[in-house]
Amino acid sequence: MTFRDDVKYQESHEWALKDDNLVIVGISDYAQDSLGDVVYVELPDVGDVKKKGDSFGVVESVKAASDVYMPVSGEIIEINADLDDNPSNVNDSPFDSGWLIKIKPSDPSELDSLMSAQEYKTYTEGLEE
Amino acid sequence: MSSYRFDSPIPPLLYEISRPGRRGVLLPESDVPDTPLPDNLVRSDADELRLPEVSEQDVVRHFTKLSHANMSIDTNFYPLGSCTMKYNPKINEAVASHPGFASQHPLGREEDTQGALAVMYRLQHMLAEISGFSAVSLQPAAGAQGELTGILMIRAYHESRGDTKRTKILVPDSAHGTNPATVTMAGYQTVEIPSNNRGTVDLDALRAACGDDVAGLMITNPNTAGLFEEDIVAIVDAVHGCGGLVYGDGANFNAILGIVRPGDLGVDVMHFNLHKTFSTPHGGGGPGAGPVGAAPVLAPFLPGPIVTRGGTDDGDYRFTMPENTIGRLKSFHGNFGMLLRAYAYIMMHGADGLRAISDNAVLNANYLRVLTERAFPVKFKRTCMHEFISVGSVYDGVSTMDVAKRLLDYGFHAPTVYFPLIVKDALMIEPTESENRETLETFADALQAVADEAQNNPDLLHDAPHTTPLRRLDEVSAVRNLVLRYQR
Questions:
Q1: pLDDT cut 90: percent of chain B above it
Q2: Residues B479, A64: C-beta atoms closer than 8 Å
Q3: Which chain A residues are Cβ-neighbours of B421 within 8 angstroms?
Q4: Mind listing the pLDDT tens digit for each residue in B65-123?
């Protein structure tokens, strides 16, 4: 299980990485492992504006369909359209080719409220009990 | 030279054995002049139907072989949690195939179909009596349509009062996925209410979510963890207190027949799964039926037509649209064949028998829970209702899916897996009342054997099933590369 430590996490298992003036978002290794084989990813339209905590899409596996939530407020600048044909990238490479969206944050300070890798790891251990 | 095998348990597709000109039925020569269709209605060669051409014997063998490859409630114990896979009594079929019913035309006049209308009228009243509601519509075709009906009725109620500020429906996180889907279909937004560590609704979280933007709550009781929502009265009060209405999901009604009536608990509208609680065929075995019952506040909004009696209590049966009806949900009169079967089932049991159904469904579930908890730990260690949830992933390197597949080798249908979502790696087990003690004990022995194998020979589970007509299917590829129709 990988807890990449240069990204921030939220309780609904998305990670967020600050990349210049954008924020890249995906789901954690823990999340993809719990979901199992991802078969379909539904993403928002580029240009959509959403608030922190809003659902921006759905990750569907053979076990379950789970909403994914905005870790920060802002405009959707880019989506990972490659996931249409290769949803398994979310499993194989959740932090790299399995990324979901890029956001132009309206309030970058919202990132500060997210968990560090260590905090998130402790949080997931609590879920296993 | 034939390319298909006669020794395979899975028959070739009818398309594959099709031969031009082969027939199962020979129609007589036409004795009237041909009347050609207009050119624009005639198929071109390019979009020709290409239906399989086979003999009657080909068809009989094909479907008989398929039925042999199937697991069904008529052949195997089927503890598929949340689905109430009880025995479907054959007397239901005898009643439904009675020519007086089977030969009726749905467009028949009311005065010529009084017998069929009488059955519908009585079934409406029996379901209302069993559930504590004031009126029932038999229209909805299955559970999910019943849910949609209920939420559309709640919406119509608020709109009839000019109350348009309500945009949200509360749904516990243990709910069936159809609940939030229903909310979306009805034009509302879902607010998820968390469960507490006892597996039931977190009352404080629910109260905090109540407000004047809440149109209602969808609640399943007992819930999908097989637990009775003990705070149900406080839950209903909280929702009513903020002006919302309560939708009861009747999926698990089999646990409480004759014991508690949702209408008495303050639930405003609920659907019944006739194909679960009232023993009509399930899944591929036939269409469902999802009648909806309503308290007085929502009864005028029921979909119609419903059956009433003209003028007096002994007047003619007739179809009537409720006063503020949301309209029709289905053509004609619901899945009428299922209504007949449910009517037969209720009449065969009577009030005492219905109570005994739930008593035994709960007893069977608890007996099995205790018998199996050493093999696979039970998530919520307390008395359950009609089903319980075990954790399937307690042995290293063995998944819940591996356990489920291995059970097929022991001659048991697998339990529901990975649901509800509030329990990681769930095995959801619902024996129903129609299984005897020996079956339950044999199933418990099988689960123990699988647990032993998981520790001593896990590859046996990884490669399971071994004895079924087809080995483990590649569900991931099947979903990623959907093929929905025959491709040459």
A1: 86
A2: no
A3: 64
A4: 998 888 889 999 999 999 999 999 999 999 999 999 999 999 999 999 999 999 999 99
Q: What's the DSSP call for residue A116?
A: P
CATH code linked to domain B92-347: 3.40.640.10
Encoded amino acid at B52, one letter: P
The ipTM of this complex is 0.80
B216 φ, ψ (degrees, to nearest 5): 175, -175
Look at residue B195 and give its three-state secondary structure: strand
Average pLDDT (B33-50) is 86
What's the N-to-C CA distance of chain A in angstroms? Answer: 17
A contact residues 29-68, partner B, Cβ 8 Å cutoff: 34, 36-37, 39-40, 62-65
Contacts of A88 in chain B (CB under 8 A): 480
Best residue of B189, B393, B418, B424 to probe chain A, by most A CBs closer than 10 Å: B418
A128 — contact with chain B (CB < 8 Å)? yes
B21 DSSP 8-state letter: T
Q: What is the mean pLDDT of residues A46-50?
A: 97
Nearest to A39 among B421, B424, B479 (CB): B479
Hey, are the CB atoms on B424 and A34 less than 8 Å from each other? yes
Which among B177, B421, B476 has the least Cβ separation from residue A37?
B476
- Is the pLDDT assigned to residue B462 strictly greater than 70? yes
State the span(s) of chain B assigned CATH 3.40.640.10.
92-347
Q: Tokens 């698990």 appear where?
A: B252
Domain definitions of chain A by residue range: 8-107
| Residues A128, B424: C-beta atoms closer than 8 Å | yes
The nearest CA of chain A is from the CA of B474 a distance in Å of: 11
What does the block give as tokens for B210?
């109540």
Give the whole-angstrom CA distance, residue B316 versus residue B114.
7
Which chain A residues contact residue B177 at CB under 8 A?
65
Interchain CB contact of A105 with B (< 8 Å) = no
User: Is residue B244 pLDDT above 60, yes or no?
Assistant: yes
Among candidates A64, A87, A127 on the partner chain, residue whose Cβ is nearest the Cβ of B418: A64
In degrees, to the nearest 5, what angle opens at C-alpha A111 toward C-alphas A109 and A117? Answer: 150
B1 pLDDT higher than 50: no
Cis preceding-peptide flag for B99 (omega within 30 of 0): no
Q: Do B85 and B282 form a contact (C-beta atoms < 8 A)?
A: yes
- First-to-last alpha carbon distance for chain B, in angstroms, is 18
Instruction: For domain A8-107, give the CATH number.
Output: 2.40.50.100
Q: What is the CATH number of domain B356-478?
A: 3.90.1150.10
- pLDDT tens digits, residue range A58-112? 999 988 888 999 999 999 999 999 999 999 999 999 999 999 999 999 999 999 9
B309: which strand partners?
Answer: B317
Which residues in B lie closer than 8 A to residue A36 (C-beta atoms)?
A: 418
What one-character DSSP code corresponds to residue A3?
A: -
Which whole number is the average pLDDT over B34-47?
Answer: 87
Where do the CATH 3.90.1150.10 domains begin and end in chain B?
356-478
CA quadruple A14, A19, A21, A22: dihedral positive or negative?
Answer: negative
Residues of A in contact with B417 (CB under 8 A): 63
pTM: 0.91
The yes-or-no verdict on residue A128 having pLDDT over 80 is: no
Q: What does the pLDDT look like over B301-356, one tens digit per residue? A: 999 999 999 877 778 999 999 999 999 999 999 999 999 999 999 999 999 999 99
Cβ of A39 within 8 Å of Cβ of B480? The answer is: yes
